[in-house]
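Retro notes
What went well: the complex prediction finally ran end to end.
Inputs used:
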Amino acid sequence: MMRPLLDIRDLRVEFGTEQMPVTAVDGLDLVVAPGEVVGIVGESGSGKSVTSLAVMGLIDYPGRVSAQHLRFDGRDLLGMSDSGRRGLLGKDIAMIFQDPMSSLNPCFTVAYQLIETLRVHQGGSKTALRERALALLQQVEIPDAQRRLNAYPHQLSGGMSQRVMVAMAIACNPRLLIADEPTTALDVTVQAQMLELLLQLQRERGMALMLITHDLSVIAQTAQRVVVMYAGQVVETGRVPDIFKAPRHPYTQALLAALPERNLGRERLQAIPGVVPGQYDRPSGCLLHPRCAYAAAPCRAVRPALSGDSEAQVRCHFALDPTGHPGNGWDRTA
Amino acid sequence: MFGFFLRRASLIIPTFIGITLLVFSLIHMIPGDAVEAMSGERGMDAARYARLVHQLGLDRPLYVQYFDYLGHVLQGDLGHSIVTQESVLHEFLALFPATVELSFCAMLIALAIGLPAGILAALKRNTVFDYAVMGVSLTGYSMPIFWWALLLILLFSVTLGWTPVSGRIDILFDLPPVTGFMLIDSLLSGEPGAFRSALSHLILPAIALGTIPLAVVARMTRSAMLEVLREDYVRTARAKGLSRFRVVGIHALRNALIPVVTVIGLQVGTLLAGAILTETIFSWPGIGKWLVEAIHRRDYPVVQGGILLSATIIIVVNLAVDLLYGVINPRIRHSS
């Protein structure tokens, strides 16, 4: 495997006080190869967004970020100066967010906000910058781009705003684009177009795309590899076709079972009982065990480690076999 | 933008009419007898009284009197002072620059200190600096102006002797009024030391008058800034790799200024009200002192005219602030 673009080992993000820390990300390992599309999936509160903000260095006090290492293209992000890190942001690592309508500054025109990114990282004459901004808007397929340059964000629709955000993110040809729920706030009809646009840009530019979502069907359409997160931990990673065919973690299995297309003809959608554990109810043993259909005695006592190779990993004492049943000598009564 | 201007400007008319009604009825609310008050005569005989009633037009129906008054006001005729016999408008215009100069400098001090203090307090929230700024500004806001002004005079004028106690400029200088603004006139005169003298006379009253607006601006800036710093677009700005100065000073501040500008507009009323106290204490020859003296002398045409003009100025300034609001907030400008 070639040198990873993003290499995260044992990332921890904590909020709250030193005495009463709230763990948002708990020992996360993640590797993204150049030009790869990785999907990160999990419920609300599983630490997906916090992970991406930690990569961007946008976690503010009182949040604390630590890791064995957090490298981008071999460079240690945590050891970098603030200005050194800012030099990467928007240039080599870019990010788009969930809510495009509030992510653009309402006081400035589209042109101003687009050109600002270009000017800070690359510079150039006023007319050249404006031309490049126009070209970027055309690349993200904004109709009537010339006129939109002078528009204010409140004059744009949600889909249009997200396209502007994408244009801003790809302005300096980043090597990694983090998209945090890029389609969640958009109309269903626009969602598919947005994903198509992101994938097309990813292919054309050969950039790596880290796609964060709670929607497995989005992953199925887009990603090569998927990372399933639960309560701040990675519970399973693997190639998309493998995981969709034969999930090895009970949580992944339950997520897949909750997909509407796998519930055709049923009265009710299958759901996972309970919610992601919060600050005060982090369980002992496996973090999933209170919600897991297969929880047995060891699950309540011992927190499982992530096992497997770089291709596929799973964090479960009784990883599921290809038939979807718990293996490794599982016995509920034991 | 032009439509926006017209919509805002059209709101002036009913407000103005309301003020004229209020000021007009003032003459009928005067304690004692209106004729005696207006003429300044006491104990006159019935024939003279009747003649004066007719002369003052008080025997006509109220609505006729009102429209007559309104007609005069619209032509710029606000009557004459009972004491000096000068035209009220003329006196007002002669004194107004002094008040503008004082208020402008007070606002300048308020903004120059209040904005940075508010921004820094927001950035360093819940630190000693934040608590200090908020504590001091609350103290400033709560302090009675006249007491604060006297304290300033005691310390800087009496004890330290750094500044004069009252007036606009040292009586040794006899400057021709060109603009009416002493700072500018003293510069134009070319007399050595004149500008320095004008400035030293101005500084204490400006501080006294600017204290409340300063406190309001600092607190408003802080809270607006705190709100804006949590917004998604600030996160976007940081994700673009912008410097901290650009993120705070441009992306956040531009949005935080929207509520602050509104507050600044509302402070103009506070400034004119405060000018009455400040000018009286510092013997600053502006409209505040003029109005107080008119009230003491029961010079009703001056009181009427002064109130009408001050109120009109406050309306106009608030209109200007509304327009400025449209300039800095594109969402207002474009909404129909």
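What we learned: Chain A has twelve helices and 13 strands.
What to try next: split runs per interface for comparison.
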